Amino acid sequence: MTGGPTIVRPPGFVVDIHGAFVRRVDLSNADLAGANLAGADATSANFRGANFKDANLKGTILRGADLRGARNLTREQLAAAIIDETTLLPDYLEREDVASVQR
Amino acid sequence: MEWWIAVSELVRNFGLLGAAVIGLMLGGMRVVAANRQANAAFRQAELARRDHVAELFNRAVGQLDDPKLQVRLGAIYTLRQIARDFPDLAGAVLELLNVYMRQNAVDYGDAAPSPDVQEIMRILTRPGEER
């Protein structure tokens, strides 16, 4: 079923859910460009294919999150977030690289 | 005699021309008036429509805090439809949902997220999706 026209984001609008609780939420293919997810709890969330360009991930809990296929995610962004060994990273990022930035 | 006939034809033709000009002017004035009336009716209908949307928007905002999931979901679907049908209100709807997610961060532990949280996040992060 389709709902007719889609929503057009106005210029300048960014997702700002800092501090929100989004555990296990399906955010696959999400457009998170410029988004503020600081301090959000995204434990075990599905971020497959999501676009993280310039997203703020400071203190974002990404334990167990699935980031495979995520786009425009940088080591610096991940180093600012809280990840663990259960966090699934995109192919172009190594856990050691992230750790080296954290150090 | 012929001279009089020629003069009377001339007078008649001028009379017909004058009548035609007056008729055209009256017709034109009627068209302008009808046009104004139609524009006023259109503006009235648009204002009534926006009033209705504002009412729907306010009601939906009030229902976002409802304890019943189905009421909250209905409110979210209403807001989604408003954002789709009225692009100038899309920003207000999206900002409202942003604020809602920040202010109503409910810790549901490791359980699956509530459908309303899932739907709000879908609207915020995949606005172009038809659903």
Q: How is this fold's topology laid out?
A:
The complex is a heterodimer of chains A (103) and B (131).
Chain A: H1 75-80, H2 95-102
Chain B: H1 2-63, H2 69-85, H3 87-103, H4 115-125
Q: In brief, what are we looking at here?
A:
The complex is a heterodimer of chains A (103) and B (131). Chain A is largely without helices or strands.
Notes on the protein architecture:
With 103 residues, chain A is low in regular secondary structure. Chain A has a single domain (15-98), classed as 3 Solenoid (Pectate Lyase C-like), CATH 2.160.20.80. Chain A is 14% helix and 0% strand. Chain A is built from two helices and no strands. Chain A is globular and about 45 Å long. The N and C termini of chain A lie far apart (50 Å). The mean pLDDT of chain A is 93. With 131 residues, chain B is mainly α. Chain B has one domain (2-125). Chain B is 82% helix and 0% strand. Chain B is built from four helices and no strands. Chain B has helices at 2-63, 69-85, 87-103, 115-125. In chain B, helix 2 (69-85) runs antiparallel to helix 3, helix 2 (69-85) packs parallel to helix 4 (115-125) and helix 3 packs across helix 4. The longest helix of chain B is centred in the first third of the chain and has 62 residues, at 2-63. Chain B starts with a helix and ends in a 6-residue tail after the last helix. The model of chain B has no long low-confidence stretch (mean pLDDT 93). Chain A binds chain B through residues 1-10, 13, 15-27, 29-32, 35, 41, 43-44, 50, and chain B through 80-81, 83-85, 87, 90-91, 93-95, 98, 101-102, 105-113, 117-118, 121-131.
Top keywords for this entry?
heterodimer; A: 103 residues; little secondary structure; Pectate Lyase C-like; B: 131 residues
